[in-house]
Amino acid sequence: MTDPATNGFRKLRFADSDGSDYSDIFEAEYHGSEFASETYATEDARYEYTVVGDDDLSLRTMRAEGGRRGGVIGPRDDHVVFWLTKGRLEMHFADRTRVVEPGSPYIASASEAYRFESTGTVYNGVHVADRFLREVGRDLGYRLPDGPLLFEQQDEVIARRGPLRHLIGELGPALVDERVVGPMRTALNRRLAIVVLDTFPIRNRGTDVPVANRLRDAIRYVELHAADRPSVSDIAAACGLSQRGLQDVFARTLDSTPHRFLREHRLDRVRSELLRADDRPDHDRTRGTDGVAVIARRWGFTNPGRFATAYRERFGEDPATTRRASLSARPDAGRSSWRVRRAVAFIEEHAAEDPTLQDIADAAGVLPRRLQQLFREERDESPMACLRAFRAAAERNATAGTRDAD
Q: Are 133 and 198 in contact (CB under 8 A)?
C-alpha cells in the first residue's frame, strides 16, 4: 500500500468560468494518458468539476448546466461509484447501453471502457483505486478473481438503504479537510472501500456467494418477517452467514446491528401506516392513541412507553403527532395538505443529501414561496427547518447505540 503520509492528497477544481477546457479535467487527473478520448462539451455547456482525496480514494462532483458533454472513457486504474441528483447520462459499453438517471448508485468497473453522453447533470462520485480495493478485500478475506475486478450493480433492496451515501454524509467533513492526511485518511478511505466491497457483488467468483448478495438476502428477510421479530440466528440462517459474520457485515456496511436494524425497520413500518391513516375507508379508521397502539402491536411493539420513546428518538415527534397530521390531511381537507405531505415525504427520503428549497417545492408540485406559506400554515415551521429536524433525528439515531425499544 502506498505510504499514507505521502499519498498525493489534492484538491482540484475545473470550471468553464475559469477558462478550463473540458479536456483539462481528464488530462490533469490522468497525466495526459489516453484514458479519455473524444471528450467534448458544447459551447453552451457550463460546468464545474471538483476533486478531493488522494491516490487511494477521492470524492468527485460535477455540476453541469445546459449543453451536452461526452467522450470515450477507456480502461483505468480506479473503480467509479456515482449517482446523479439531476440530469441524464447514457453509457454505451461494448455489450450493452445503460441510461442512468437520478436515484440509485451505479458502479463502473475499472477495466470496462465506455462512451458517455450527458445533459444537465449533477454528479457525485467516489473513485477507488483498483490496487487499494484489492488490498482491502484481501484483508477482509474476500475471494477475488485473478483477472479484472468486475462488479455487478447493487440490488434495489440495498440501493434504497443508501449505505455509501450515508457513510459519505457522516465522513464528508473529514474527507474534504486537507488537514486529515496520513493514517487518519487511510482509515477513512478503508471504511468507504469496505462498503463498496460489501454492497456491490463481485463477478467471476466461482461458487462463492458475494457478501453483497448475503446482505441483500438478510435485509429482504427482515423486511418480509419484521412483524414476527425474527432472531439474529434466524436472519443469519436465511442469508447463509454465521451470526458473527452477520454482525460484522451489518456493522461495516450499515453501522448497525441486525437487532437494531430490525427494530428500526419495524418503527419505519409503523410510521408508514400512521402516515397512510387517511388512505383507508372511514369505517376502517381508528382514532387517537388507540389507533397508534393497534398499529404498534401489529409490528411487535407491546410496551407503549418504550415504543413511544423509540419512535420519538427516531423521528423527532410522538406517534400520535404523526397520526394527527395524517388525519388532518384527508382528501376533503383540501389539496394543500397533500402538497405538504408530499414535501415532507421527499424531505425524509432525501435528508441525508442536500436538497434545496426548489427541489422540495418541485417534489410537492408548487412554487417555493407557496410551499413556505403552506408549511407555516400547517406545520408552523419552514421546509428547511423540517429538513434540519429530520437530519437532527437521524444524527440522534446514529449515536443512540443499540438500545432496545421493546
A: no
DSSP 8-state secondary structure symbol assigned to residue 209: P
Specify the 3-state DSSP secondary structure of 32.
Answer: coil
162-201 residues labelled b (16+ CB within 10 A) or e (exposed): bbbbbbbbbbeeebeeeeeeeeebbebbbebbbbbbbbbb
Identity of residue 399: T
Question: What is the H or E stretch that residue 291 is in?
Answer: helix 288-298
Which three three-digit cell numbers place residue 216? Answer: 441483500
The CA–CA distances, whole Å, from 350 to 49, 170, 171 equal 23, 15, 17
Q: What is the DSSP string of 155-190?
A: PHHHHTT-HHHHHHHHHHHHHT-TT--THHHHHHHH
Gyration radius of the chain's alpha carbons: 23
Amino acid letter at 250? F
Cell numbers linked to 44:
453552451
Per residue in 49-74, pLDDT (tens digit) is 999 999 999 999 999 988 899 999 99
Which residue in 45, 82, 76 sits closest to 60, CA to CA? 82
DSSP class of 219: H
Residue type (1 letter), 111: S
pLDDT greater at residue 5 or residue 244: 244
Residue 173's Cβ-side half-sphere holds a number of Cα atoms within 13 Å equal to 1
d(CA 125, CA 196): 12
**Highest mean pLDDT, choosing among 33-42, 164-173, 384-393:** 164-173
State how far the Cα of 28 lies from the Cα of 26, in Å rounded to an integer.
6
Q: What is each CA distance from 313 to 301, 319, 384, in whole angstroms?
A: 15, 11, 20
